[in-house]
Amino acid sequence: MKSIFKATMAALSLLLVGTQVATADVKLVYSSWFPGQSKHHTEVLKPFFDRIAAESEGAISYELFTDGTIAGGRATLQAIRDGVVDMGLIANLYHPAELKNSALLSELATFMIDDAMVGTAAYNEFILLDCPTCVQDYVDQNIVPIGFFSNPPYLLLCNKPVASHADLSGLRVRAVGAWASLIDAAGGSSVNMTTQESYEALERGQIDCTIGSADWLVQSSLFDVVTHVNTMSLGTYTGGLIIDMNAETWSELDEGQREIVLRNASLAVVDFSLVYIEESKATLSLADEKNVALLSPEEDLVAFYAERREKEINRVIALASDRGIEGAEAMLDRFSELVVKWQGIVEEVGHDRDALAARLYDEVYSKLN
Asked: In sequence order, which residues have a C-beta less than 8 Å from that of residue 222 and are 6 or more positions away?
């Protein structure tokens, strides 16, 4: 089968004819809004770029900017689109208009995924092989999407105890996508802001909680402003784009260089999610030392969440028509099939880095060449 990605990239190449040609040496500038010390830089992105530099015999070099020094979470898409940088970390939920199809899938996936590796693999296979409109959304922004990731389950990170359904009433909670609807339905008030804005908002009392990954407590220094963590899983964010490229820059790479990028992308997205999983576990083990209380959810909160999961999926499907998206139910059905497929694969190989990357390459990335 001719992949969606391959067909779309072929069409894109026709549009770029006469504007760019493959060159011998390319320097890739990457913009990340994660903190500089993040292991996502030291153990994922830097090794990824070092591998492609070595495999291209130095023809591909890179410069990595962190801490949002070039572009923050909401501005990265525009920075790549306009050629300010070549690559960067994109959160599609910050761009529901421009990336409406992949953002919708991320909202649908929120309460379907409990294992980040299952989400990472299923999402990449669906977007790159089965969703032409998803790929086209990025191409319309002058971006080639290459590698998506999934987080470990999100939790409630708060500056006050939140254990019951009633505890959420009246609270201001940073939440985007399906989580915003969840908080509003619980009687709280969702606040739309980026991850990086959470620290100051918690410190100043502008919000009471943020929904996010446990490793944010270290990565974004939230241990300084969070006193309580509810350990109930609130689903995952699946669909962050870690490996991508400005379309003109992509056209500068020859076929061999593109193959190097694609092959190493399968390992990078696995590494990204595994680092997230490991860091989240390690962070929670520091709770006592940091005087942060870990709270188990009370029965009424568990019951509320279980009920809302089904309602949220139906709400997101209904939302699709408002956003001009066709085939949301078919999207859900196919993605559900892929979730089951990758649950089986992950059960088979566990979180073995090399085995997962090899399977992801065989099942997805080898079909993009």
From this structure: 157, 198, 199, 202, 210, 212, 216
Q: Would you give the DSSP letter of residue 34?
A: S
Asked whether residue 71 falls in the same domain as residue 177, the answer is: no
Number of structural domains, the chain?
2
Domain identity same for 220 and 262: no
How far from chain centre, in Å, is Cα 78?
17
Burial 316-354 (b: 16+ CB within 10 A, else e): bbebbeeeebeebeebbebbeebbeebbebbeeeeeeee
Q: How confident is the model at residue 369 (pLDDT cuts 50, 70, 90)?
A: low
Question: How does pLDDT run across 111-165, given as a tens digit for each residue?
Answer: 899 899 999 999 999 999 999 999 999 999 999 999 999 999 999 999 999 999 9
Q: Domain range for residue 295?
A: 155-235+288-314
* Assigned domain for 13 exists: no
Question: Whole-model pTM?
Answer: 0.89
Q: Which distant-in-sequence residues (6+ apart) come within 8 Å of 211 by Cβ?
A: 154, 155, 156, 157, 173, 174, 175, 179, 183, 234
